[in-house]
Amino acid sequence: MNATVSWKGISISCRVMDSFFSHVKGLMFSRRLRKDKGVLFVFPDDRQRDIHMLFVFFALDVVWLDHNGKVLKIAREVKPFTPFVQGTVARYWLEVDAGVAEKLHVGDRLTINLKRSDIS
Asked: Which contacts (CB < 8 Å, 24+ apart) does range 13-21 have?
């Protein structure tokens, strides 16, 4: 599944992480993330969502969102290999390259468009 997440004239094409394994692996072992790409972690409920940056080789901005796409918390320029980042109760979190979320603020609303991939 893929998604487009947009705000304030910015549109990010995202890979969706919606399984236990994808939640654990995330961007581990990835070398970079383009400015127009991101990863959207999707969960079926609202719970405390903390992250790690183990084996992630570049800094990220991380944005926690409620079920309506409202920004609940932002961690900016999270350093590679950070063992623990405390999140908040959220339905989604978005990971983008460091600096991409610089114009976002807590309380802003993002548009999330989830798309199922067609396999031909």
From this structure: 13/37, 13/38, 14/38, 14/39, 14/40, 14/94, 15/39, 15/40, 16/40, 16/42, 16/114, 17/41, 17/42, 18/42, 18/43
